[in-house]
Write a structure and sequence with these properties.
The chain has 136 residues and is mainly alpha-helical. The chain has one domain. It has five helices and no strands. The longest helix is centred in the first third of the chain and has 30 residues. The chain is elongated and about 45 Å long. The chain starts with a helix and ends in a 7-residue tail after the last helix.
Length: 136
């Protein structure tokens, strides 16, 4: 198997774990609190974020450093995912009446696909995140 295929498998495994944590948090918040669906989605996303960073950096992309560029890029991708998650829940569930569970499932597919592309190209791209490539 190629190194890229193995990385994709590790990404999928890490993503599945993070996604399950997100979805469990979302279901718990929707059933056990009075939070609106979009706020519950944001809270669940934030709850799974640290785990996602650790799994993706250490396991998927085999990075043992936390450069400012890497962490900052990860946060930027996470914010993009958070905004996407929030808007999906707000627009599809709150405004258009789709089930929050259905929209949560959509978020569980959309965010990982977006993340893989951005993680590989920017966040954990060793040529971009090495200290020698940052700065003057």
């Amino acid at each position: 198997m190629s190194a890229e295929f193995l990385r994709l498998i590790r990404f999928a495994a890490s993503g599945i774990v993070s996604t399950v944590v997100y979805f469990v948090f979302l279901m718990l918040l929707l059933s056990g609190t009075s939070l609106t669906p979009e706020v519950a989605s944001v809270a669940a996303y934030l709850g799974a974020l640290f785990l996602s960073y650790m799994l993706q950096s250490r396991y998927t992309f085999r990075t043992n450093t936390d450069s400012a560029f890497q962490v900052g890029s990860f946060v930027a991708v996470a914010v993009a995912g958070l905004i996407t998650s929030y808007l999906a829940m707000l627009i599809l569930s709150v405004w258009y009446g789709f089930s929050p569970v259905l929209v949560g499932g959509l978020v569980c597919v959309l965010i990982p696909a977006m993340n893989y592309v951005l993680f590989k190209a920017v966040v954990f791209n060793h040529r971009r995140s090495s200290p020698s490539d940052i700065g003057p």
